[in-house]
Design brief:
Helix content: 40-55%
Order of helices and strands: HHHEEHEHEEEEHEEEEHEHEEH
Oligomer: single chain
Largest sheet: 5 strands, mixed
Length: about 325
Amino acid sequence: MRDVNNRIMRDWVVFISVVEARSFTTAARKLHCSIASVSKTISRLEDILGVILLSRNAHKVDITAAGYVTYTRAKEIRQSWQELFSEISNRDDRIKGKIRFSAPSVLCELAANHWALDYMRRNPAAKVQLLSRDRTELTLASPEFDDLVLKSGVTDSPDLVHQSIGNVRFRLYASPDYIRKNELIKSPEDLNSHWIMKVDHPFLRYPLTFTNGEETSELTILNDTSLTSNNVPAMLNMALSGAGVCLALPDWVASRHVSSGELEMVLPEWKLPEMPVWLVWRYRENYSALFHDFRNFIAGQWKTLSMAPLSGMQSDSA
């Protein structure tokens, strides 16, 4: 019922925005969603009410007589909802309440757990529920969207709000012992003669495109000396054990092992594409102080983590 009520309120907000903007495009930009999502919302309201609310063509959007009556009532509904929400949720400006935060399992295990605890220590009246999730597909109906989700990769949810917070940098890593005992790796093609631990992620599907200045190389491992897993810590541990080259670890995962000398970067001059990272949530007319503050906190934590330099880095040709 909660999800249904949220969608109904959002539909009214979308309708009001289109009427006031006289444009699907402008409304979509204001609401941070796709034009297709706005159009689908208007069609859904028209189907529910059994009337045409908006007359639209290639040049403009006009409101019908039924649409004008609906617009007036919709504004009253929105105002009542805002007053109710304000009365029960915003009696003071303290950061308080409970928020659900979903993130990839590797982030939960190595970083987000510390973020959640740190945030609650700073804000004793706030409670964070940390949820591990590794699915890449998300829709408005996904259960994680009670509150906030950190998601990587291509966005595929036009009905949700997306905030870009940076990128994941991927590189190749191996233990110094493995590098010393095996053939020198001078180009991406040389990886075909090595044991490979490949991280299984849609963003890292073959062929992988490497760039080195103006030079480009596309790689597909052709031999059978490759272990693939979607478990990043498992691939990390294999690389640390000297089993082969990990293709590819996020820099933030490898950084402390590079600093300690346990890992070295392979082909440091060759770059892989960076994967975008997003904070994603359902659209609401009103957000709590907790939501705003926690969202900004997570964005700052990710920026600090992802942009940390790789100290102690060595190349495979040293």
